[in-house]
Amino acid sequence: MVLHHPDSEPQTPRGHYVFVDGPSIDGTLGRVIGQPPGPDTRPDWRRLETFVKQHCGPAPYEATFVFWAPGQQGFMHFLRTSGFMIALGDRFVPGQSCADLIRERIARLNQAADETQPWQVIVGTHNPDLIAELPELADMAERITVFGFSEFLPDAPELEEQIDFYDIEDDARLFRSQLPRVEFDDDLDEAPDGLPEPGYQPPLVDPPALEPAPLRTFAPRPPRPVGDVRELYLVVDGRSIEKELGEILGEKPNPGTRPDWGTVLDFARSQSQSPDGDVKALFAHIAPGHAGFRRALKDLGYTSSPVRPDDTQPMRPVVEEFICGLLGARALRGEAGDDPAPDIIVIGHGQPIFDALSDIPDRGQRLCALGFPERMPATEFYPRVEQLDLERDAQAFGAELPREFGVDVDDFDPDEELSRLF
User: What is the DSSP string of 27-88?
Assistant: First the structure.
């Protein structure tokens, strides 16, 4: 490991460089649980950044997920929206493997390293050859971390002084529920019938099924009178959030700066009054929409609704108009059947949406606008519409947004404000 020069000033950490050996993790998971992995037993990769920053400290985070080509489009889109870069290995090229790709990338990092600036490498793998090479392969890294299933990680005391080992379930907490682990015979050379072989990679790797993530704690849902159970609708104006977020960032949003739509749905479920936290989630967007993104939305639990643009008026807010029309439906207004009127959360910022929400008859339901409140109409004009913050309440972003809230002239410290400005 490289040490800083004693006379040098402390440097901002260069970064956490994370590599996930997809075939190794997925194949070993199948052997751990005693069956091919499914949507409910695969890791929730959105939690990886939290684990890395908790155990390795604050620093820029770059993660690469490595798996066999060609890859499933929906899963690759999910990875990109979760902050991963993607590297594909060719399973038909003799001698090439996902571990080889990871070796190449770590070697490049090592060659380009500035010995005065710390950086770390974190690898998810069970490949014993790759793990054994890491201390020399990344000898300019300040710290090396390996995570995986501890029973499959190498029993090498000589490496423990150079590598920090973590269990992917117990330490990294990447799973939504406890795995049904089975006893594993170390002398077993072949996987039992029906289990994936080492290096197994299924044609479709499922994005995580969404349950409230234990690494995030949301505000408790408001109390509801006993027996008054309402459905909850979550309706997303995809065009509105893209526009408002772009103005906050000063540039077009990318997969690393867009909301984590799985976390948004987790938040909505935390607000649901139904016993099982059920939410009817609709994502409205301009037609036709990216096929991979629509598939990822479906896998996360959303219904995707493309809205045809107006060719004669390119700036017409057709998605907003569509949502306003939906809010006039009898079911959402509580006028269909004997069931209580449903709670509604709309991700949108425009005045027409607030007008449509306020027009719904008051039957004791919650009507919420989720987004950036500083970009919504003033609360005094729409007292029935509760304003929720997509960043602070729903915790939908992996990094703090550069939002400007303005100075409250009734409550500010002149000295503090002046020092902030200059």
Answer: HHHHHHHTS---TTTS--GGGHHHHHHHHH-S--EEEEEEEESS--HHHHHHHHHTTEEEEE
**Tokens 């260069």 sit on residue:** 14
CB neighbours of 164 closer than 8 A, spacing ≥ 6? 55, 143, 144, 145, 146
Using CA atoms, how far residue 143 sits from 56, 101, 160, 171, in Å, is: 8, 20, 12, 17
- Pull the structure tokens for residue 377: 């109409």
Distance separating alpha carbons of residues 198 and 23, to the nearest angstrom: 8
DSSP for 77-93 reads HHHHHTTEEEEEE-TTS
- What are the pLDDT digits (tens) for 345-362? 999 999 999 999 999 999
Per-residue pLDDT of 203-256, as tens digits, reads 333 444 433 334 455 555 555 545 568 999 999 999 999 999 999 988 888 877
CA distance 309 to 331: 26
Tallying the residues shown for the chain, one arrives at 422
Residue 279 phi, psi (nearest 5): -135, 135
pLDDT tens track for 133-146: 999 999 999 999 99
Which domains are seen in the chain, by residue range? 15-167 (3.40.50.1010), 232-389 (3.40.50)
What six digits make up the tokens of 64? Answer: 């690469």
> Looking at 295-374, which runs of residues are DSSP E strands?
302-307, 343-347, 367-371
Strand order in the sheet with 143-148: 84-89, 61-68, 15-21, 119-124, 143-148, 164-167
Q: What share of the chain is helix, strand, coil (3-state, %, to 5)?
A: 30, 15, 55
Query: Mean pLDDT throughout 180-189?
Result: 53
